[in-house]
């Protein structure tokens, strides 16, 4: 009798172990399929016909995936409408601005130069605003590929040097990254230009580049003295200018930087360093599939 009880207990344990192994395999399958759907746009889960708890979990995940797919589709449609709208606005504004410039040049009044400067400022502001809105609406295609961060940075600095010949740039470190070279270059350009404009005649800029297995970090610091701590959280808002900043700027450069870095799945933050304002870019090192999501 004792042996029979032990045998029954042993068989019951085998049955329980088998059920646990089966459940574990099913949970692993659901996890892998869900991760594949979220990361690479794989096939959504099928609806389960069973009445057990695992089937209920699978159906709940399937419902969430369908809701996410609908949300993605609506987002793409809305981004497309916004992109077309900004393109139409840009096209419609070019003609009157060109006409105003022509009239100002033809009049040759004592205020002609001031008028032309204001027209140019208006054109720059409109173009920057439309560029920002189109970025927010995913209106520009981003193409990710391998690049050297220090090379992108130096290329942008070369274009700035004629405008700020007295400024000095020091770059430390190097990093091989995946990025959209054109757009990351524009982000670097805006950050370097911002540092040049808000430092004195002895302006210096220090850039530190670091690449880890999981992320890329770029720190840009100047000797301009920084800003009021209360302003730090507002610097990336559109049209915001700190008290010491030039009033002729559009107030959109840092907002554009934020959107470009966001398209690289990263963040950009500002803080006061020991010498001046310090901007930090942090971008995860994603593979090709994830980078293009």
Structure overview:
- By secondary structure, the protein is of the alpha+beta class.
- It has a domain of 147 residues: Histidine kinase-like ATPase, C-terminal domain (Heat Shock Protein 90, 2-Layer Sandwich).
- The protein has seven helices and seven strands.
- A five-stranded mixed β-sheet has the order 2-4-5-7-6, with helices on one face. Strands 1-3 form a two-stranded antiparallel ribbon.
- Strand 4 and strand 5 form a beta hairpin.
- It is elongated.
CATH topology of the domain at 145-291: Heat Shock Protein 90
Poorly predicted runs of 5 or more residues: 289-293
Class by SSE composition: alpha+beta
**Fraction in beta strands:** 5-15%
List the helices and strands and how they pair.
Elements: H1 2-40, H2 53-107, H3 112-136, E1 145-148, H4 149-160, E2 168-172, E3 176-179, H5 181-197, E4 204-211, E5 215-222, H6 253-263, E6 267-272, E7 277-284, H7 288-291
Parallel strand pairs: 2-4
Antiparallel strand pairs: 1-3, 4-5, 5-7, 6-7
Helix pairs in contact: 1-2, 2-3, 3-6, 4-5, 5-6
Describe the structure concisely:
This protein is of the alpha+beta class and 293 residues long.
């Amino acid at each position: 009798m004792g042996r029979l009880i032990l045998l029954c207990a042993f068989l019951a344990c085998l049955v329980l172990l088998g059920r646990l192994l089966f459940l574990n395999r099913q949970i692993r399958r659901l996890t892998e399929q869900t991760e594949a759907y979220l990361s690479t746009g794989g096939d959504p889960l099928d609806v389960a016909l069973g009445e057990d708890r695992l089937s209920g979990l699978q159906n709940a995940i399937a419902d969430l995936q369908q809701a996410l797919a609908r949300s993605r589709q609506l987002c793409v449609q809305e981004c497309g409408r916004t992109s077309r709208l900004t393109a139409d606005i840009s096209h419609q504004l070019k003609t009157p601005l060109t006409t105003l410039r022509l009239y100002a040049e033809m009049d040759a009044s004592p205020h002609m130069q001031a008028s032309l400067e204001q027209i140019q400022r208006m054109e720059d502001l409109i173009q920057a605003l439309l560029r920002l809105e189109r970025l927010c609406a995913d209106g520009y295609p981003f193409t990710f590929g391998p690049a050297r961060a220090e090379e992108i940075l130096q290329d942008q600095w070369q274009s700035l040097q004629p405008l700020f010949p007295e400024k000095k740039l020091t770059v430390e470190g190097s990093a091989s990254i995946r990025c959209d070279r054109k757009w990351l270059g524009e982000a670097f350009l805006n950050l370097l230009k911002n540092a040049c404009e808000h430092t004195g005649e002895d302006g210096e800029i220090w850039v530190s580049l670091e690449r880890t297995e999981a992320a890329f970090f770029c720190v840009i610091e100047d000797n301009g003295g920084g800003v009021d701590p209360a302003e730090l959280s507002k610097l990336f808002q559109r049209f915001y200018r700190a008290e010491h900043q030039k009033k002729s700027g559009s107030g959109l450069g840092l907002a554009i930087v934020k959107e470009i870095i966001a398209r690289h799945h990263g963040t950009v933050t500002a803080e006061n360093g020991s010498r001046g304002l310090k901007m930090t870019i942090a971008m995860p090192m994603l593979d090709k599939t994830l980078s293009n999501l």
